[in-house]
Amino acid sequence: MASVFLSYDRDDSDRARHFAHALEKAGHQVWWDLHVRSGAQFSKVIEEALKAADVVVVLWSRYAIDSAWVRDEAAAGRDTNRLVPVTIDGTEPPLGFRQFQTIDLSRWKGRGSPVQLRTLFADIESTTAPPGAAPSAKSAPRVAPAPVRERLQINTWLIVALVIGVGFVVLGLVIGRPWEINRSGVPTVAVAAADSSPLSQEMARNLLVKLGSLPADAAAAVRLPEDIGPAPADIRIAVNGTREGNVIRANVSLVSGRDKSLMWSMDFERSKQDRSALDDAIASAAGRAIRCARDEASGEYGRLSKDLRPTYVNACTALTEALGDSDSLIPQLRHVTEKAPNFRPAWVRLLAAEADYLSALSDDSDEARALRAALRKDANAARKVDPNMAEATLAELEIQPTISPAQAMAIVDKAKGQEPQNPRVLVARSTELDRVGRMEEGRLEADAAVKLDPLSPTRRVNLIFATIFAGKIDRARLELASAKRLWPDSPAVREAEYELALRYTDDWEKMSRDMGYIGPGFQIYSNARRHPDDATIATYMAFIRRPENKGRMHFALEGLGEINRPNEFYQLVGDSGGEAAVLSDRSILFRPWMASIRRDPRLMVLAKRVGLVDYWQKSGHWPDFCADADLKYDCRTEAAKLSSSP
User: How many other C-beta atoms are found inside a 10 Å radius of the C-beta of residue 367?
Assistant: First the structure.
């Protein structure tokens, strides 16, 4: 993955957006001028981003060749051997840049993958290749994103708050959920050092650039520390850094610009060698907190009192870290809804927290029944605030103790119709697609959720799991490496790392011990997995059939898939409550390590009993595995036989 600075003229912003999305989809980090809108010192931010970029991709056009900004940025790329030039309307580059082979993408409108676009990706790869690596077929320079230029044209959805008394556009911050953006004005965010120390000043500058290099779908226009001016920002970020020997500590605080009250604060600590990871972690956490603070600062849903504001911002920020562990956040968010019943964002987060925690509980527990009733009540109350709230629709997935595949897909499809760009909706739909065997579609929905909400570790973890379940293991490892860099202490990320280790590494036993997952049957499972002979399998089966192990049936079935024992799998399904375990989570049938189970025609009989065949036939959406080359039966034929039998 490369860090790409995309340079273009403001009149070409719509075309530039296509390139930004394509580069991000290819795995690159893109900095372009949506991140910086205006301000006396904004050239400093551009300079920092330009220096930090691996590649400068220039989009030459009839406008760009006359832009001093584009020429300067292209020259910076040319003089450091980082330039990759592209023409987007057939215009020839200006003098001084014609010695570089220019990629002609004048006919590309943002759809498809023409050979010229693949050439662009190859050129970026060759430009960032380490010394001594085999050169690519061409070694052309590249071009980078051009911040707002002399032809500044402010689109209405990017309008930022006006600075009182000065009359020029200041920098705003838009992070996260585009469906909740304030239509009347974007809250402004000022980033500054908490003191005059060089380390604090440097950290503030790094945070500014990091926030500005977020993906295009979460683009941030940040206000410069030097350009605070007389008008207060809606949200202020203060960064304080200290160094003690080999340890660097930092504190980041969010303060309301209206009354100077503290809304959120977090401490960080890393070794000096991990300084880059520290900056990434600060930017990620600060971005999540800003997104939550912006809910209130926009004023679109009303204002919270001074005492409620930190309650909401802290609970909202923590919710992005929670994964089945959000019970402590529910009282905080309910308190906000009780005190501010029309504040829509609090209802959104409350329903999400309740549904998240409920999904981790046993369906027949007293706690689950009580929470299910509370969720139903809260969803009804939330609909009075917004009848089309997608989270209220998604709540139906948890409110109903048993639900068919068709019903579940209808719910998530309805929610997507209500809010198609809502990451929670995309994650829920990804999960339900997995449960009906549409694994690749599920992965794509999870990937789209991450692009919309890149600051959430739970969104990234969901993508890692979806990528594993779709069988793309190398890609899952890359996603995990990225997540560990941003959130090294996240329990959710640790769970994703364990899932990969358990299935695809030799040190899974060690990690199981490190995670504390060593129960009474661990050695039995370990022996069966390492030496799957008849004796160890018999011991394994005897252990599973003990009444006290009923709750472990789900994992036991997956274990039999791992060691390629379909006969034993279908025995458990038939005589020991295994079918109930499959019914509780049908997705286990479609995971990569269950291939031997799927190759057995008995899979279709089981699928019929748990409602999958009926869904596949009526919807016409057949599972991915039906196209496997080594499948010895035809899914549609077997389904038809089962449907016609008495």
Answer: 12
Closest CA to 204 of 95, 316, 295, 282: 282
Query: How many C-beta atoms surround the C-beta of residue 404 within 10 A?
Result: 14
Which one-letter DSSP state was computed for residue 91? P
Instruction: Give the closest residue to 459 by CA, choosing from 500, 504, 425, 434.
Output: 425
DSSP summary character for residue 186: B
| Sheet hosting strand 247-256, strand order edge to edge | 189-193, 235-244, 247-256, 262-271
**Contacts (Cβ under 8 Å, ≥6 apart) of 442:** 429, 430, 431, 433, 434, 466, 469, 470
How many other C-beta atoms are found inside a 10 Å radius of the C-beta of residue 352?
21
Spatial distance between the Cα atoms of 603 and 406, rounded to a whole number of angstroms: 19
Provide the 10 A C-beta neighbour count for residue 132.
Answer: 6
The CA–CA distances, whole Å, from 386 to 314, 371, 380 equal 24, 22, 10
* Two structure tokens written together for 442: 């599920």
CA-closest candidate to residue 139, choices 124, 156, 150: 124
**What residues form DSSP beta bridges with 5?**
31, 56
Tens of pLDDT along 451-496?
888 878 889 999 999 999 999 999 999 999 988 888 887 888 888 9
Q: Residue 286 in contact with residue 220, Cβ under 8 Å?
A: no
Task: Point out which residues pair with 255 in neighbouring strands.
Answer: 236, 262
Query: Nearest CA to 390 among 217, 184, 179?
Result: 179
pLDDT of residue 359: 82
* Residue 258, helix vs strand vs coil: coil
List, as one string, the DSSP characters of 446-499: HHHHHHH-TT-HHHHHHHHHHHHHTT-HHHHHHHHHHHHHH-TT-HHHHHHHHH
CA atoms of 444 and 463, how far apart (whole Å): 9
Report whether 585 contacts 435 (CB < 8 A). yes
**Residue 521, token pair as written in the block:** 């049957």
Indicate the angle between helix axes 491-504 and 457-469, nearest 10 degrees: 20
Q: How far apart are CA 558 and CA 560, in angstroms?
A: 5
Residues 237-292 pLDDT 10s = 999 999 999 999 999 999 988 888 899 999 999 988 888 888 888 888 888 898 89
